[in-house]
Specification:
48% of the residues lie in helices and 15% in strands. By secondary structure, the protein is α/β, with parallel strands linked by helices. Strands 3-2-1-4-7-6-8-5 form an eight-stranded mixed beta sheet. Belongs to the glycosyltransferase 2 family. Keywords: Glycosyltransferase, Membrane, Transferase, Transmembrane, Transmembrane helix.
Length: 380
């Protein structure tokens, strides 16, 4: 049990702390030189939406306002929305907007497969219905490509109200840090679903039950031998979910998708993939199995409590989880907690959701359907 305890604890600490520290000390971020284009390639912005009547009009208007010198069209579809999303997207008369109102909710990836099959553009920019681009975002993404680059991820800034205690924004800054350094190593994993571009010819249609589409789309491009870059100059913004409770369901669903993605990307585990494989193991695989490691650490520690140091470690774990659950209850009820408690609560909630996602994955979850996550700007 002693060996199991320390191996599990080391892997967990390595993934969250040692690996980022290694990147910070030994890797220099890569400055991407934007290409000077004599002819700008054609671009289609792809948007799949479900029950997004509160933001979809602004999203399309923002896409149309992009300062891009080449041909730019917006392919947008409502995936069986129960609100007015379909009516809103089909009301646009601008010829650059090509809208489809699908009657059935089939799931995001089915909509993406359909929209992309209708695209003739050289490049695709994929984004979310609640995202807002800076006016030069598309231009920067496209000018980041060269012959060896197959996908470019932009930077997402998560915005929050002053009273929002969801720590997703802080965690996302941590993720952005990793993306920036992994890009320099050639080990960038997936893309930021709110803002990324790909060469259309490299798109491989995905299974209809795919959940983490942004990750799988870009992993397929990497598998074809192309580079994937992260350019923080291409900026988008989104609102954070107003509470841990609102975010929890989305994280369970993403957890299911993570384990599905793990099974279809076993090729990336090979040590012969070099830095890419190291980044994949360190950043993704160990994180996806963090709930399992946390449970193993707790149970193996229980068998070691006859020793005073391990008794203290066990008590420390119980206190950690107790603080997390306490913080979750307070936050969900709208009460204010201090920063440390909020961070512990977020970490615990994130991994509980991931653990639930794992069990649903084992049960054979097949649906690609999706549910809209509430946002702080929604009408209550």
């Amino acid at each position: 049990m002693l060996i199991i305890f320390w191996i599990s604890l080391t892997l967990l600490v390595y993934s969250y702390f040692i690996y980022p520290l290694f990147l910070k000390i030994f890797v220099s971020p890569k400055v991407i030189k934007l290409q000077t284009l004599n002819e700008y390639p054609s671009v289609d912005i792809i948007i799949a939406a479900y029950n997004e009547e509160s933001c979809i009009k602004a999203r399309i208007e923002n896409a149309l306002a992009q300062k891009y010198q080449g041909e730019l069209n917006i392919l947008v579809a409502s995936d069986g929305s129960k609100d007015n999303t379909g009516e809103i997207i089909t009301s646009f008369t601008d010829p650059r907007v090509k809208a489809i109102n699908f009657p059935e909710n089939r799931g995001k990836i089915s909509v993406l497969n359909d929209l992309i099959s209708q695209s003739n553009a050289e490049y695709l920019v994929l984004t979310d219905a609640n995202t807002e681009f800076k006016e030069d975002a598309v231009d920067i993404l496209i000018r980041s490509f060269d012959n060896n680059v197959g996908a470019v991820s932009g930077e997402l800034i998560l915005e929050t109200d002053d009273g929002n205690q969801n720590q997703d924004g802080l965690y996302w800054q941590y993720e952005q840090f990793l993306k920036k350094y992994e890009s320099a190593l050639g080990g960038l994993l997936g893309a930021n679903g709110a803002i990324y571009a790909i060469k259309r010819e490299l798109y491989i249609p995905l299974s209809k039950d795919t959940v983490v589409d942004d990750f799988c789309i870009v992993m397929n491009i990497k598998k074809q031998g192309y580079q994937v870059l992260y350019n923080e100059l291409a900026v988008a913004t989104e609102e954070i979910a107003p509470s841990l409770k609102e975010e929890f369901g989305r994280r369970v669903r993403i957890g299911i998708g993570n384990y599905k993605a793990f099974m279809v990307n076993l090729w990336a585990l090979s040590p012969f993939k070099g830095w890419f494989s190291i980044c994949y193991w360190s950043h993704k695989v160990l994180r996806w199995f963090a709930p399992h490691l946390m449970l193993i650490i707790l149970l193996s520690n229980l068998f070691l409590i006859n020793s005073a140091p391990y008794l203290l470690l066990f008590i420390g774990q119980i206190l950690f989880y107790g603080i997390g659950f306490y913080g979750q209850r307070k936050i969900d009820s709208g009460e204010k907690v201090n920063g440390i408690v909020a961070i512990i609560s977020f970490f615990l909630s994130m991994n509980i959701a991931l653990g639930q996602g794992f069990f649903k994955f084992l049960k054979g979850h097949k649906s690609g359907g999706w549910q809209r996550t509430a946002r702080s700007g929604d009408t209550k």
